[in-house]
Write a structure and sequence with these properties.
Residues 158-218 form the Transglutaminase-like domain. By secondary structure, the chain is of the alpha+beta class. The chain contains 5 helices and 14 strands. It has helices spanning 115-121, 127-141, 155-161, 166-179, 234-237; strands at residues 2-13, 17-21, 31-41, 47-50, 57-63, 66-77, 143-144, 163-164, 184-190, 200-207, 210-214, 226-231, 240-243, 246-257. It has a 4-stranded antiparallel sheet with strand order 3-6-1-14, with no helix packed on it. Helix 2 runs antiparallel to helix 4 and helix 3 (155-161) packs across helix 4 (166-179). 40% of the residues are buried.
Length: 262
Amino acid sequence: MRLSIDVTLDYVLKQPADILLQIEAAATPDQRLEHQSLTIWSDHPVAAVRGEDGIGQRCWIRADHGLLARYEAVVVVERPVVRLEGLAATPARGLSGDLIPYLLPSRYCESDRLEGFVRQRFVGLSGGAMAAALADWVATHMTYQSGGSSGVTTALDTFGSRSGVCRDYTHLLVALARAAEIPARCVAAYAPGVDPPDFHAVAELWLEGGWHLVDATGMAQADEIARVCVGRDATDIAFMTVFGEAQLCDQRVTVRRLDGSA
C-alpha cells in the first residue's frame, strides 16, 4: 500500500516557547519512506532526537511568534493483515525488559483499575483470542464522538462514558490489553479514510513475539497504517507538545491511497 501524506501546521504563540514536534512517518522494517520532506519556518536551528523505542524521530523547535510547518511524504506499507485469534500469548515472566513498561499502568491507561472487569467478562481467553475479543468489545461498545473528551480524559473515563475519539479508543484498548497481561502501546499514525481527516491513534499489541497494529475505531486496517511514533500513552505520542501556550490558526492532514481512492 502506497500512501501520500500532506500536513500543514500553523500556530501562533503568545510568547516564545520550545516545541517538540512528532509528525514524520517512521522508517521501519514494515514501512518504507519513498519520499519525505519536512519544512519548518524558524529563525532558530531545529534539532532532531530519536523517538520512543527508537521508532521515528522528534524535532525540537524554538519558536518566537508562531509555528509554521509543512510535511509531505510517500510511504510504502509492506505489512500483512494478521488474524489476532491465532496468535499465542507470551507469559509475563517471559517478557524482556523493554516490554515491561507496556504491561504496566500509565498516566492515561489505568489498566490496574480494569483487571476485575477483564477477568469476569473474558473468562477462559488468553493471547490472540483475548486480544481479538477486547478489540471487538471496544469497537462494539464505544460511540465515536468528537468533542466528547479532552486532553486529560483517561481510559477509565472512556470506559465510563463509552464515547470518544481515536485517542480514547486507543487508550481503552491498551488499558484492557494490559489488564489481560498483554503488552500494549499507543501508536501515532497516518491512515486513509480517517473521518474527520486528522492525525490518528491506534493500538499495538505484543503477541507471539511481535507487535500487531489494531485500530479499534475500525477506520483503518494494519496494512494501510503508517506509524509515526509509539509510547505508553498520549503523553509519548502527541504530534506537538508546546512548553508554553499556542493558538491554532490552521491544521490540515490529508492521507490518500495512491491508487486514487481517498
